[in-house]
Specification:
By secondary structure, the protein is of the alpha+beta class. It has 3 helices and 5 strands, in the order ααβββαββ. It has a single domain, classed as Trna Endonuclease, Chain: A, domain 1 (3-Layer(aba) Sandwich), CATH 3.40.1350. The mean pLDDT is about 85.
């Protein structure tokens, strides 16, 4: 996996290097695919309010729609990524998720919200922590 991360960090000619968040989303997407989820959207933004963004939208084999917030952090960060998804961030994510659901032709039977934390340490493979079914929807 570390070789793949190094490949993502490569800067294409005339392009910009990927940010830590972009690399974290790549790692998280690969991790979720390995768990059997299918990524259907990345960095989806609410057309009515472009500030509202969902990092990853996935589906599980049984038809569950999964909204994912990815937090890429240093392994030595004082606050783990899970705890940075506070009440204010959850309110923004809830509005974005509702907008995504309204845009679908038919609302899925079940959906949930997950947080994937990608903790990086210089010179080591990133550690991925997956928190499933984080309270978001009333």
């Amino acid at each position: 996996m570390w070789a793949k991360i190094s490949e993502w960090l490569w800067t294409p000619p005339g392009g910009q290097p990927k940010t830590g968040g972009e690399v974290g989303e790549d790692v998280a997407a690969d991790y979720l695919r390995a768990k059997g989820l299918r990524v259907v959207a990345r960095n989806w933004r609410n057309p009515a309010d472009r500030r509202e963004e969902i990092d990853l939208v996935c589906t599980e084999r049984d038809g569950i729609l999964v909204f994912v917030e990815v937090k890429a952090r240093s392994a030595t960060a004082r606050v783990p990524g899970y705890y940075t998804v506070n009440r204010r961030k959850k309110a923004v994510l809830l509005r974005a998720c509702r907008a995504y659901l309204r845009a679908l032709p038919e609302e899925p039977r079940t959906y949930r919200f997950d947080v994937v934390e990608v903790a990086t340490r210089h010179g080591a493979a990133p550690e991925v922590l997956h928190f499933e079914n984080v309270p978001l929807f009333p």
